[in-house]
Amino acid sequence: MRDPERHSGMVQGHDPSGGRPAPDAEAAPGADPVGMALTASEHEIPAVQYHLAQFLADHLSDCCQVFDGDLEQALILALLWQRFVGAHHMAQIDRDKASEMVWMPALRLSDAVGLPRETVRRKLKLLEAKGLVLSDASKGWALAGDVGHSPGNDRLDELERRMRRRLTRLFVRLRATLGGA
After folding, report:
1. Per its UniProt record, what InterPro entries does this chain match (predicted)?
2. Is the CB of residue 9 less than 8 Å from the CB of residue 112?
């Protein structure tokens, strides 16, 4: 079974947030969302599971529609996006290293998503045809576009907007459920 921590594509030991809490987490002094979740009482766990399941179901359903039923494309794009954002943060420390971080070989992507390499290559070609990813024979694959803006596709801009709303709603509901509101 694959280890998501090992295969996520992020640089080991590099936290893109710099250890800073999310902006909403600062709203309640002393509120640590992770700590709150870990200390949830038995009666709070079903509500936490419900809110998480609702977020995941809504987001996966949305991705399924945007990617015409092909969630594998969405997953591959998400991994490349993770590298892209990590590289953006790394650029503040080491610009040369950051420019190389955005690239990921198809074999590594294949390992990360648990799909055969040829399947991943086919999905990457579809994403490339949509203008969402770039390829380089010596470096691999990278997300097209700029950090802070989904790459050249209005459908992805809308997906990202809806995801941010969902994520904010999840955070607010979890804080209320776990007593951090």
Report:
1. WH_DNA-bd_sf (IPR036390)
2. yes
